[in-house]
Amino acid sequence: MKDKSNKKFWDRVSLIYTFFMKSHTQAYDEISKIISKYLDKNMTVLEIACGTGQLSSLLADKVASWNATDFSEKMISQSKKQSTIKNISFSVEDATNLSYKENSFDAVLIANALHIMPDPDLALAEIYRVLKPNGLLFAPTFIYEDNAKVPTIKLFFMNRLGYRTYNKWTSNTFTNFIKENKFNVVEQSIIKDGLLFESMLVGKKPHN
Asked: What is the CATH number of domain 5-204?
């Protein structure tokens, strides 16, 4: 990933991130319920940008193996400390240059990360590569609908610490972005998350 400014931000906030994410518990519960419909005990799943494991802890025991990754070494360190689920493995990975072979996973989860990546199309290309044919993409992502109230003060201080948002999609433009990157859209819904909204999108890699 060319721009590492966001990595520095996530390294800095890794110790408090779990506490910070408690305000998003309801949205994460809704996201996990949607994703759970598509999971089974035979699946191998890759999670990109796992943070400190909020979704990993809710979903990993529903599949055969769960590979939780993040660009931030400190986030992975915190994830390892907090996890008690046996089928999770943790590693540091660059979403735009994954170390896995082609057709390795039944599903890939990338939650609330594409909008803060300078090259999200490269991340989707890598996800497409490591997914098996008919493999599933779970991509809950913050979006900017017309009626969203952006928490400007909160974002001001986050920006001072190094946080960057590179893409401000609406639900429609985000769906189009996923389609432009060769995925079929299986399901898309909007979840209210505090002042913002999330597009809970499920995509599929075509068989051919």
From this structure: 3.40.50.150
